TrEMBL record:
It comes from Bosea eneae. PANTHER family: SEGREGATION AND CONDENSATION PROTEIN B. It holds the Pfam family SMC_ScpB. This is SMC-Scp complex subunit ScpB. The keyword Chloroplast does not apply. Residues 202-215 have a biased composition (Acidic residues). SUPFAM superfamilies: Winged helix' DNA-binding domain.
Length: 228
């Protein structure tokens, strides 16, 4: 009896190992074929039901830990990326990074930290007017999206960041952006600071806020600046 039970347990373990191995191959193939990070829940739809996707991901991360590519968590999902210590080898072949003007960088940072935000609010924070082309560049890059319309006169469009923004800058979540102390430590903020200076905790929740309406017809006239 004991021998029969042991043989049955061995067979069950073998079946579990086989299922895990197959699940790992499936997820590995999906990730290599995808041009963008894939969510764990989406990957789970393709693996055997009796294999937890968390175990599959952990197994692959361990398998690739010392290889030329590693499995990393990016933009809330998972993707294979070049091992950090080998990135320099691909630098000559890599597509040159998109160079943004100072205005575009400032606008992107304001959107990332203050979203949802309108053009007029961006200009108020920057203290200068924002050219329409600046926002067009960020929209074309896929790092910024139109969220909705603010419930205020003119119903101006609100802007927010995208998963592509997180992916490009190697962030898993929007709140991985540095806070005030981290910015000071990195030398981005110097000198004496105003007592009321704060860096907001960013939030890219895709759901509309209480003061936002759906975009609706984008071809209706907009009040781009909320005023002026």
């Amino acid at each position: 009896m004991a021998v029969a039970e042991a043989e049955r347990e061995d067979e069950e373990d073998w079946d579990a190992d086989e299922a895990l191995a197959r699940a790992c191959r499936i997820v590995e193939a999906l990730l290599f074929a995808s041009v963008q990070p894939l969510l764990a829940e989406d990957l789970a739809k393709s693996v055997p039901a009796n294999v937890p996707i968390e175990r599959v991901i952990a197994e692959l991360q361990q398998t690739y830990a010392l290889r030329g590519v590693t499995l990393q968590r990016v933009a809330g999902g998972y993707a294979f990326r070049t091992a950090p210590d080998l990135a320099y080898l691909l630098a000559p072949e890599a597509e040159p990074p998109r160079k943004l003007s100072r205005a575009a960088l400032e606008t992107l940072a304001i959107i990332a930290y203050h979203q949802p935000v309108t053009r007029a609010e961006i200009e108020e924070i920057r203290g200068v007017a924002t050219a329409k082309g600046t926002l067009d560049i960020l929209l074309e890059a896929g790092w910024v999206r139109l969220r909705g319309r603010r419930r205020s006169p003119g119903r101006p469009v609100t802007f927010g960041t995208t998963p592509a923004f997180l992916d490009h800058f190697g962030l898993d979540r929007i709140d991985d952006l540095p806070g005030l102390e981290e910015l000071k430590g990195a030398g981005f903020i110097e000198g004496r600071l105003a007592k009321d200076l704060t860096v907001p905790v960013p939030d890219d929740d895709p759901g509309l806020r209480d003061d936002e309406d759906p975009l609706g017809d984008l071809f209706t006239p907009l009040d781009d600046g909320d005023a002026s």
